[in-house]
């Protein structure tokens, strides 16, 4: 459904990543990281940068 077009990589305060369709309002608590790009490129950025899936609050407790 949302495979075409451009997306933003977005991140929340817990440093969890996702993608969001460009041109749509972001959900509360999320901010864009970088510029809009095709879905595959955004997913590759996430794969390269999000190496620890735990929320920031759990990483800081260890």
TrEMBL record:
Domain MbtH-like: residue ranges: 2-48
Lineage, uppermost ranks: Bacteria, Bacillati, Actinomycetota, Actinomycetes, Streptosporangiales
Gene that specifies this protein: mbtH
One family name in Pfam for this protein: MbtH
Name the UniProt record assigns to this protein: MbtH protein
Spans through the membrane: none
InterPro entries tied to this protein: MbtH-like_dom, MbtH-like_sf, MLP_fam
